[in-house]
């Protein structure tokens, strides 16, 4: 990853030294921003966004199993959350803004709830507070496990099957072919077990009980494609109990808003940060 000053590899000590589930690249000066990418994408996805927010100290996260960071044992999401908490504490980050895309938005909500006095703003980029409720309505979290015929199939995919699978996935999530190819390459290089089992962790999440406790301003950016106006209504339902929120809809964008509509995205972000 380019254009940053130095790399912070966080090591957690719990009796014995344990491998961290995050790596963080830091640059710049000013009030801090923590950038949290979505599932299976490294911190590089934020490269153009980082360039649009001068005057801040930026901390760009990549998760274990993705972007060349060594995988860790499951369960995975809880380790990410714990290591991010320790990172914020160890770096003594205050007046911190959290920006999270997709699963990174879930982590941002967890961190905002944990640090009510350190976080000043949150930007949620097309992240559902409970993805399972939309994708698998009525299915309880405890019904989901790592071991399943579907997961076994994903773990066993050969190169051709994986390529076809990721082609379909990326075409649904971004518009431009060059962005599809870039994200596909990141997903192809991901640790397969993390890609499959980590998604189970993501489906189990439900941040909705935390929402009433988060009092800071939250900007929720919503992609309008492929679901149309219903996308905004779904987000409003998901975040109904969040006290201090603002929604903005990019009607022509798919899920990777920062890639599909970079001008609109940067305008929304810089306006919110300046308020």
Automatic annotation (TrEMBL):
Keywords: Hydrolase, Signal. Pfam families: Abhydrolase_6. Coiled coil: none annotated. Residues 1-18 form the signal peptide. GO terms for molecular function: hydrolase activity. InterPro entries: AB_hydrolase_1, AB_hydrolase_fold, AB_hydrolase_sf. Residues 33-266 form the AB hydrolase-1 domain. This is Alpha/beta hydrolase. It comes from Algoriphagus confluentis.
């Amino acid at each position: 990853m380019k254009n940053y000053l130095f790399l912070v590899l966080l090591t957690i000590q719990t009796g014995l030294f344990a491998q961290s589930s995050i790596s963080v690249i830091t640059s710049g000066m000013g009030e801090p921003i923590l950038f949290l990418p979505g599932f299976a994408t490294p911190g590089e996805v934020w490269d153009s966004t980082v360039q649009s927010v001068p005057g801040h100290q930026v901390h760009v996260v990549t998760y274990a199993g993705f972007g060349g960071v060594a995988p860790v044992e499951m369960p995975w999401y809880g380790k990410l959350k714990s290591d991010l908490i320790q990172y914020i504490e160890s770096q003594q980050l205050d007046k911190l803004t959290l920006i999270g895309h997709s699963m990174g938005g879930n982590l941002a909500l967890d961190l905002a709830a944990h640090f009510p006095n350190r976080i000043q703003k949150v930007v949620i980029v097309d992240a559902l507070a409970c993805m399972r409720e939309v994708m698998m309505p009525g299915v309880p979290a405890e019904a989901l496990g790592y071991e399943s015929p579907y997961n076994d199939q994903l773990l066993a995919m050969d190169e051709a099957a994986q390529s076809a699978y990721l082609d379909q996935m990326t075409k649904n999530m971004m518009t431009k072919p060059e962005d599809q190819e870039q994200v596909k390459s990141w997903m192809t290089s991901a640790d397969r077990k993390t890609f499959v089992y980590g998604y189970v962790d993501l489906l189990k999440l439900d941040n909705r009980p935390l929402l009433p406790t988060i009092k800071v301003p939250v900007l929720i950016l919503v992609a309008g494609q492929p679901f149309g106006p219903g996308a905004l209504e779904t987000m409003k339902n998901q975040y109904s109990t969040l006290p201090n929120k603002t929604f903005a809809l990019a009607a022509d964008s798919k899920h990777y808003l920062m890639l599909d509509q970079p001008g609109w995205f940067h305008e929304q972000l810089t306006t919110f940060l300046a308020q």
